[in-house]
Write a structure and sequence with these properties.
By secondary structure, the protein is α/β, with parallel strands linked by helices. The protein folds into two domains: 193 residues, Nucleotidyltransferase, domain 5 (2-Layer Sandwich); 63 residues, no CATH class. It is built from eleven helices and eight strands. The strands form two sheets. A six-stranded mixed sheet has the order 1-4-3-2-5-6. Strands 7-8 form a two-stranded antiparallel ribbon. A hairpin with a 4-residue loop joins strand 3 and strand 4. The chain is globular.
Length: 276
């Protein structure tokens, strides 16, 4: 987003007990509806924290070019009238991609919803948004490993009081940061390195394993996905088209089990595993 954003603010507040080696940006998207396949962004808020503790908040209302459902308006308080005179996502796509470049990403529910919707918006704008080689630190995943609840319960548990998502544009990104902060303080044995904490928080349930170690698992939609390395989170369908040589490399690598190597070899040829 451009630097003249009227909702931009900066501060220095070393309150997040993570050992940051590069900037981390908390992201929150509010959308036209709850279905991530059709949702369009109506507000994007980011909170960037640099390794030296400097913070910068940015928020922007966005015209989704499609109606906001009544249920969505009830949830986040943004109506069609609020965004009627706003610019569409494509107007900010290139600047936003540059702003996010080189940063790890964080939020609450960011992996399952926010990043997928954001990726769709970037694709529609013709801008490549690649987050494969960076940490995705999801406070919801950490929380669900500790206590399976939602953001309201997480806020009460780790911050105190009631969470009001309509109180200000930065309410959700600050709540996600505060929840993660509370989790790390209340559970001091948690890893404080983002990459290690990500691996711990996003561990797949055993019932989703395709192989016996969970290097290939099922997504929420039931698609086979890769659960390691630079393509972690990508489906085998996509990988068989965009980089089958990577799958062939796995198939020839003796550090993987025979079953894992066979899955990779088959996927490289477009044959998906039998996981029913």
């Amino acid at each position: 987003m451009p630097s003249n954003d009227p909702s931009l603010s900066s501060s220095h507040s070393p309150q997040l007990p993570l050992n940051l080696e590069r900037p981390i940006i908390f992201i929150d998207v509010q959308t036209t509806g709850p279905d991530r396949r059709t949702a369009r962004i109506v507000r994007l808020a980011t909170l960037r924290i640099d390794p030296d503790g400097t913070e910068e908040f940015r928020s922007r209302l966005i015209n989704p070019l499609s109606p906001i459902t009544p249920g969505a308006t009830d949830f986040h308080g943004i109506s069609d009238e609020d965004v009627a005179d706003c610019r569409p996502f494509i107007a900010y796509a290139r600047a936003l991609s540059d702003y996010l470049d080189g940063c790890d990403l964080a939020g609450f529910g960011i992996r399952r919803f926010h990043l997928r919707v954001l990726r769709q918006e970037f694709d529609a704008a013709g801008v490549d948004f690649n987050y494969r080689n960076r940490v995705i630190l999801d406070a919801m995943e950490v929380y669900h490993r500790l206590e399976p609840r939602d953001i309201d319960h997480a806020y009460r548990r780790f911050v105190g009081g009631e969470f009001d998502r309509k109180s200000s544009p930065d309410a959700t990104v600050n709540a996600a940061r505060a929840i993660l902060n509370g989790q790390l303080k209340q559970y001091p044995d948690l890893p404080h390195e983002p990459e290690i904490l990500e691996r711990w928080a996003s561990e797949e349930p055993v019932e989703n394993y395709i192989d016996d170690q969970g290097r290939f698992t099922l997504s929420d939609e039931g698609d086979p996905i890769i659960n390691f390395g630079k393509y972690r989170g990508h489906t085998l369908y996509d990988l068989s088209e965009v980089d089958p040589d990577y799958l062939r490399w796995v198939a020839a690598n003796e550090s993987f089990t025979d079953h894992q190597r066979q899955i990779a070899a088959d996927a490289a040829e477009g044959i998906m595993p039998d996981f029913d």
